[in-house]
Each structure stands twice: as C-alpha cells, then as structure tokens.
Amino acid sequence: MSALLAARGITKRFAGITALDAVHLEVAAGEAVGLIGPNGAGKTTFFNCLLGIEPPDAGTVEFRGRDVTHLPVHRRARLGFARTFQRIELFGGMTVREHLLVAERARLGTGRLWKDLLGRSAPSPEEQARAARTLELLGLTDVADAPVEALSLGRGRLVEVGRALMTEPALLLLDEPSSGLDRHETDALAATLADVQAERGTAVLLVEHDVEFVQSFAERCYVLDFGTVIAAGPTAAVLGDPEVRRAYLGEVVV
Ligand SMILES: Nc1ncnc2c1ncn2[C@@H]1O[C@H](COP(=O)(O)OP(=O)(O)O)[C@@H](O)[C@H]1O
Ligand SMILES: [Mg+2]
C-alpha cells in the first residue's frame, strides 16, 4: 500500500546544529500516527519541513505520490494538508462559528474574509451546514455563538481543530495540541480526535510531548531524539523499548 505522506531523509541544520538528521516517516490514509520526543528533539522543525514552512536541507516530502518538497504552504493545503500550531491562534471578539466560517472562506478562496464577517455577504447555506456539522463532531454546538474568549483552553484548542477540519483535509497535522491543557482536557481531546478519525477517515499525525496522549490515540509512533528517529513501530512496542525509555522517559533500565 502506498503511503499518503512519505517523508524521506529529511535533514535540517541551523548554524551548526543538526536539528534533523535523515528523518524518515510515513502515514497511510486514515491512519493515526504519533511523533514523540523530548523538548528540543526536532519535532517542530520536522513539522515545519513537512508543511513547507521551512525548507529541508536534504530529503523529500511526498503526498499522494507527488513530490511536494518545494511546494509553498498554501499549495499543500489545497492538496489536503491541514494543521494546528503549538501556540493557540484565535481572534478575540469572534464567535466559535465565525472562526470556522473564516476557515471555509479561506478554503473557497473568496478572499473577502473580514468584510464577509462584518455582514456584507452572509455565508451560504452550504458553508453554514459544513460549520454546523464540524461543530457537532467536535462537541462545540453549545458554544457555537459564544465569543472564543469565553472558552476554556481545551475547547479553544478544539476550535483550532475545527478550523483545520473545515478544509476537509486528508491529513491533519497537530503540533503539541496538549500544550497548556490539563490531563482531563487532554483526554477529552484524544477522544474527540479519535471520533474525527473514525467518522471522517482523516489521517492524523500527532506531534506530542505527552506520552499518554500518544499511547491512547496513535496506532503507530516514531520517537525522535536529537534529530534522529531512534524507534518506530506499533505504539505499545515502541514505548516499551528499553532504549526509548532510557532516552526519552529518562528511566534507568537495569
Ligand atoms: N529557527 C531556528 N534557528 C536556530 N535553531 C533552531 C531553530 N528552530 C529550532 N532550532 C533548534 O533545533 C532544535 C530542535 O528544535 P525544535 O524542532 O523546536 O524541537 P521540539 O519541537 O522537539 O521541542 C533545537 O536545538 C532548537 O534550538
Ligand atoms: Mg515543538
């Protein structure tokens, strides 16, 4: 079976530091894959190379069999990439539903986002229906018309996931979505992502520091340490690997 996403030999250097050294990672259609590693391991750098935010110094990124290594971010988005960032990016004064509708306008490329939101042209029934379905899937219907600043951080994160899902991506990339969330919010996020994956068949690449989150969500995972993949395979086996435990979990294995 050919991979939906295949990153091969991704290498990235910053002024003498090799942040990534020939990293290889694949995600199949509909699959939930984790990428874990300690702070500074190179996770965000890899994420940025996949998305075209930063060019790799070597290696290729293939998506649906096509070499996208040199495609700009927005062209990849059109092919079916969507992502959320480690830092939350929501707009005060806008409601949850408006956040999703802005994403929809961006997808359709109609441009006049801000004017539209100020009421010069109402969203179409199709846009409204898509937003309503996404809100329902994420359990945000009860706060649809609340301003985003009224939400907890956990539900704010779901709004970001909702924005990403409005483009109906084949692959959703998330960089540390648990950051700033407590255990309960992280577990709720894991359950919601599992629903999204099951209901829409969206493949998910979860870049995370939180091992429990990856354990509960990802079928397969990769471990990055000092820019190198030190283990890959079924999540349970990888997390039980003594080298992974020593390098990442800081355990002394006797
Ligand atoms: N823009 C940059 N300039 C210089 N060094 C960077 C830059 N981005 C990341 N690094 C370095 O690359 C390494 C990996 O960082 P990062 O990808 O952010 O790790 P992670 O997301 O796993 O915490 C770190 O040593 C970091 O300091
Ligand atoms: Mg990071």
Keywords:
4-stranded antiparallel sheet; binds adenosine-5'-diphosphate; about 25% strand; binds magnesium ion; Rossmann fold; alpha/beta; about 250 residues; 2 domains
Summary of the model, kept short:
The protein is α/β, with parallel strands linked by helices and 254 residues long. The chain has ten helices and ten strands.
Task: Give your account of this protein's structure.
The chain has 254 residues and is an alpha/beta fold. It folds into 2 domains: 1-80 and 169-254, P-loop containing nucleotide triphosphate hydrolases (Rossmann fold), CATH 3.40.50.300; 88-168, no CATH class. It is 38% helix and 24% strand. The chain contains 10 helices and 10 strands. The protein has helices at residues 43-51, 73-79, 96-108, 113-117, 125-137, 153-165, 183-200, 211-217, 235-240, 242-247, and strands spanning 5-14, 17-27, 32-36, 58-63, 66-67, 81-84, 171-175, 203-208, 220-225, 228-234. The strands form 2 sheets. Strands 6-7-8-3-9-10 form a 6-stranded mixed beta sheet, sandwiched between helices. Strands 2-1-4-5 form a 4-stranded antiparallel beta sheet, covered by helices on one side. A hairpin with a 2-residue loop joins strand 9 and strand 10. Helix 3 packs across helix 5 and helix 6 (153-165) packs parallel to helix 7 (183-200). The protein is globular and about 50 Å long. The chain starts with a strand and ends in a 7-residue tail after the last helix. Bound molecules: adenosine-5'-diphosphate and magnesium ion. Adenosine-5'-diphosphate (ADP) is lined by residues 14, 17, 19, 37, 39-45.
